[in-house]
Amino acid sequence: MSDLEKVLAHIDADLDNALDRLFQTVRMKSISTDPAYAGETRACAEWHSKDLEAIGFKSEVRDTPGHPVVLAKNHDAKGTKVLFYGHYDVQPADPLELWEGEPFEPKIVTLPDGSKEIRGRGASDDKGQMMTFIEACRAWKAVTGKLPIPITILLEGEEESGGANLPGFLDAAKDELKADVAMICDTNMWDKETPAITTSLRGLCAEEIFIHAADRDLHSGFYGSAAANPNHILARIIADLRDADGRITIPGFYDGVPEPAPELLAGWDKLGFSEKAFLGEVGLSIPAGEKGRSVLEQTWSRPTCEVNGMHGGYIGDGFKTVIPAVASAKISFRLVYDQDPHKIRAAFRDFVKARVPKDCRVEFTEFGSGRAVAFEVSAPAFQRTQQGMSDEWGKQAAFVGGGGSIPVTTMIKEKLGMDVVMAGFGLSDDRIHSPNEKYSLTSFHKGIRSWARVLAAL
Ligand code: BES
Ligand code: MN
What we know:
It contains 15 helices and 18 strands. The chain is an alpha+beta fold. The longest helix has 18 residues, at 127-144.
C-alpha cells in the first residue's frame, strides 16, 4: 500500500473520531457579531489551537483588537508551502424557533433516502469545511509521522462579522504567512456528485442607514401628511436603487464592470445550470434582477444590491397608528471586477442624502468592505488540486465562479501576492446562515479524503 492509500484507509477508520472533534467545535457558540459570545469565541480559538498542537503544529492564539486569530505552523517537510485559511466564527442561530433541535447541539440526521447529514450552526460554514483540511493533516501525521508538505494554518474569528481586524493582522504577520499558495475550504461543490474549485468571488460593501425624522413617534392622525414619515423616505430610497430593468441606478456604480469574457460565459454555459431547479429548490420560479442576463451571469459576474433588513415603526402584534421617528435598513452591495467598495459607499451615501428632506437627518454605519477577486488557473496548485479532487469523486472537478464573499481571499492576493485555491465541499442546500444548517456526511468524509490526496499531489 502506498502512503496515500494508508492515509485514506486511516481516514475511513477514524471517521467517528473526526465527527466527535467536529461536534466539539460546533458546540462552542463562536458567534462573532454578538459581543455576548466573546468568551466562547475565544474558547473556540483555544480549542482549535490545542487541537492543532496535537497534530504536531506549533500553534498560538494571537490577540487582535477583536476576536483572536489562530496561527499554526508545521514546516518540517520540504515542498510546496501552503497557507490554509478557515474561519471558526459562525453566524447567529436565530430565528431559533425554526430549528428542529438545538443549533449548538450537533447531531447526525438520517434522511428518508438513507443519506446522512451533520446538523448544527457552523456544521458547514465553516467549521465542518475547515475540519476537512485539518483532519487530512491529522491522518497524514498519524500514518507517516509527518505532514507531506510544509503547512501554515490561519483561522480567523471575525469572517462573519466584517473582519475588521484581519487586514492589520495580515500586514503585521506578512512574513510568517508567506507561502507558495493559499488554500481555503469555505465554498461549494458544483452539485453533490461534482467537486468544484471556485475561481472568483464577489466583493462586498455593506452599510446600515438610519433615517431620522421627528424627534419622537407621532400620532398619525394628528401629524399624517404634515410630518415626514421616515418609512416612506426609506421606501423611496430603496425603490430608486433599481430601474425597471433591474439595473442599479447609483451614478458610477458600474464603473470597472466589464462584460464577462465570451470564453468565460461559454465555459459557464457548458456547466448545464438549471435556473428552474436552482430557484425551485427555494420555492421560487421567476429570475429577478437584471433583465437579459442569466442567473449564473448575474451571481458570478454582475454586482447586486440587496436590502438585508429593514425596520421602522410598530411591528408588534395588533396595530399602532404611528409615524415613527426613525427608520433603518441594512443594505449590502456585492461587487465584481474592479469596483471600488469605498467609491461605491461614497456614491451610495450621496444617493441617499439627495433623497432625505432638509428637516430630516440620515446616519450611516459602515459594515464590511472588500473588493472582488478572481484567479487564473494556470498555476500548478490549481491543476493538482483539481486532480486530487477528481480522483476522489470520480468526476472531473469543475472551475466555477462564486457569488458570495470571503474577504480574506482578496487580501491574500493583494497583500501577500499569493494565488488562492478555493476548494470546498459545501452544497447549495446546506442552509448556511439559516436555520437547520447542515453538512452532508459525504461532504465531510470525502472532503477529508480529497484534501489527503491534494496534499499528496502538492
Ligand atoms: N463561506 C461563505 C461564502 C461562500 C459560501 C462562498 C458558499 C461561496 C459559496 C462565507 O463564510 C460567507 O458567508 N461570507 C459572508 C461574508 C460577509 C459576512 C463579509 C458573505 O458572503 O455574506
Ligand atoms: Mn459564512
